[in-house]
Structure formats: C-alpha cells, structure tokens
Amino acid sequence: MVITTAQVPGGPAPRLVSGNALAGMRPGSVLVDLASTVDGGNVEGSIPDTRVVTDAGITIIGAGNLASTVPAAASTAYARNLLALLTQLMPRGEVVLDLDDDVQAAVVVTHGGRLVNPRVRAALADFKEIRS
C-alpha cells in the first residue's frame, strides 16, 4: 500500500508515482492519492473521489478531498457521545446523579454547592500555586 500526500499550494501536485512505477507493481497493490485533483495528483491515473482498478489489478483511490470529510465525522462522533452521556445522566428524562458511577463522577464538576471533581480541584490548586 502506498499513500501519497504531496501538495503544492497554488500549484499542481507533483507526480510521485508514474505509469511506469504502476506497471512494476504487483496485482492487489493499493495506492491512495490524498492530493488527487481534476488537474492530476501524485499518482498517475488517479481521479478525485474515485476508486480505479487498473487492468493489472492495481487499485488507485483518489481521495484529495479526504481532509474535508473529517469535520462531519468528528461532529457525528461527538453528538453520539453527548447523547450517550445524557442518556446515562437522564435515564427517565430527569437528571439522576450517581457520583459512585465512574463516568458521572468524571463529568460532574460541582454538586450541592461543593466542588466534587478531583481533577478540577487539583487543577485549581495548581493554578493558585502558580499565581502565588
């Protein structure tokens, strides 16, 4: 497997894997071109957002837009985590705290007018020492 990432801001991506290099690869080889654009990419024959299988059985994946898909995946994962946490904190639609539960104890900072989170308490103590 080969992953290429070379890009030039404002210019075409350099050709790193030529047709001759592809011809020397074994069938089943996979190349991911993270610089694939309509103007070309790092791998000869790569097409943006497309998986191409050559006659020799080599797969070329044009993934030049891959970085832009990360925010959507991160947002989805974050939303799922928040939903799972809220479901645990509010099993019947009302907040039910169990500070003996490891997850709840880790996310609750204050309760009943007291600072109950040991990590936050330690961080604040360190902060006070630094400011003194």
Secondary-structure map:
Layout: E1 2-4, H1 19-23, E2 30-33, E3 50-53, E4 59-62, H2 66-89, H3 102-107, E5 110-111, E6 114-115, H4 118-131
Parallel strand pairs: 1-2, 2-4
Antiparallel strand pairs: 3-4, 5-6
Strand content: 5-15%
Rg of Cα set: 26 Å
Portion of residues within helices:
25-40%
> How are helices and strands ordered from N to C?
EHEEEHHEEH
Q: How far is the N terminus from the C terminus?
A: 55 Å
Question: What's the shape?
Answer: elongated
Structural class: alpha/beta
3D structure, described in words:
With 132 residues, the chain is of the alpha/beta class. It contains four helices and six strands, in the order βαβββααββα. It has helices spanning 19-23, 66-89, 102-107, 118-131, and strands at residues 2-4, 30-33, 50-53, 59-62, 110-111, 114-115. The protein has a four-stranded mixed beta sheet, with no helix packed on it. It has a two-stranded antiparallel ribbon with strand order 5-6. The mean pLDDT is 91.
